[in-house]
């Protein structure tokens, strides 16, 4: 299984979770590195230490991110892109 297929499988499972409802995916980009996080409903995003982490963040490059975004648009899953700036 290639990386994009694995990522799609993880996303698909997250949308079918019985107790947590996936709100959207968040892509944090720094240069060519991207971290994709799963954001669930009913949890305050400011409280990152108490929010459930059913899925670990997924590391990828920008090209993979574009493929994942195409998939998300195809299946109707919301996402947010951020460009992280580090001091």
Automatic annotation (TrEMBL):
It comes from the Bacteria. It comes from Macrococcoides goetzii. This is Uncharacterized protein.
């Amino acid at each position: 299984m290639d990386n994009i297929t694995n990522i799609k499988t993880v996303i698909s499972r997250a949308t079918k979770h019985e107790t947590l409802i996936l709100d959207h995916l968040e892509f944090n980009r720094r240069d060519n590195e991207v971290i994709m996080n799963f954001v669930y409903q009913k949890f305050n995003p400011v409280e990152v230490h108490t929010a459930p982490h059913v899925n670990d963040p997924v590391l990828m490059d920008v090209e993979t991110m574009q493929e994942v975004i195409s998939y998300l648009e195809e299946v109707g899953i919301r996402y947010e892109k951020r460009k992280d700036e580090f001091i």
